[in-house]
Automatic annotation (TrEMBL):
InterPro entries on file: BPD_transp_1_N (IPR045621), MetI-like (IPR000515), MetI-like_sf (IPR035906)
Record-given protein name: ABC transporter permease
Domain of life where this protein originates: Bacteria
Molecular function in Gene Ontology: dipeptide transmembrane transporter activity
Membrane topology term: Multi-pass membrane protein
GO cellular component, one term: plasma membrane
PANTHER family found in the cross-reference section: DIPEPTIDE TRANSPORT SYSTEM PERMEASE PROTEIN DPPB-RELATED
Main location (coarse class): membrane
Transmembrane segments: 99-122, 134-157, 177-196, 238-265, 285-307
Originating organism: Lichenibacterium minor
Family: Belongs to the binding-protein-dependent transport system permease family.
Domain ABC transmembrane type-1: 95-304
Localization, UniProt: Cell membrane
Key words, A-Z: Cell membrane, Membrane, Transmembrane, Transmembrane helix, Transport
Amino acid sequence: MAALLLRRFAGLVVTLLLTSAAIFAALDVLPGDPAAVMLGTAARPDTLAALRAEMGLDRPAPLRYAAWLGGAVTGHLGTSTTYGVPVAGLVADRLAVTLPLALVALALAVGAALPLGVAAAARRGGALDAAAAVFAQGTTAVPGFWIGLLLVLLFAVRLGWMPAGGFPGWAGGATPALRALLLPAIALALPQAGVLTRVARGAMLDALGEDFIRTARAKGLRPRTVLWRHALRNALPAILTVLGLQLSFLVAGAVLVETVFALPGLGRLAVQAFAQRDAVVVQDVVLLLAAFVILVNFAVDLAGLALDPRQRDAA
């Protein structure tokens, strides 16, 4: 087991290094000079050269990559060329919005989809199974930002129950902040709940067809015990795999929903930085999002190994 974990960890490190190299190479060839963006087109050549030297832009690309990667590892992400402040502070402020938003959305998706998928599998072919299929198809067919617009029109404009957008911050208390995140979290959660419902139903149907389920029923165990304790445990590895992908998407792919609700999240920061040619912020944010996706998938992989002995034997 230790050797298996060591191999997986080595693969994680190699993946992170290759991803960081690809991000640096892709952004390094983009046109534009960050120093010229900061100083403007009327800057004197000697002033421009001095700023380029201060930012390390006059060094070869391998040295700049090594310095950037070392800074990313130690938490020194450089200074934004647009805002003139450390990127680490910008990222921390935006993560305080994006990460809670993603976690609330994931909790809503799991809370709705898992019971529905399990119940649909237990009553295959019935009315609940048909309702689950309609829910899954309907929510996955509608984009999250469109759901967000409908939620704003209904609950903010017409009913006035919820704020239409913006984020008050956590300094004023958790209740106003979570209230501002509720509608965007629902908009993010519904498409993911549809996907998770289908996955949970399929995994549960596979588990319910196994021999050990028939054995458990033959022993006289209650149907609820067979369903939730035995079948669900066997279906969890497949469900966890999709959950890991969904959490990655909710953090890295919430740009449109953040835009609809005017949330100062990490996705909006990346879009704004790209539009302003702030290469320092773009590199750091893209690397952070990529690292998050890789680490979440790594954690899901380890959870699958812990839950399913067959994966350990195959590895």
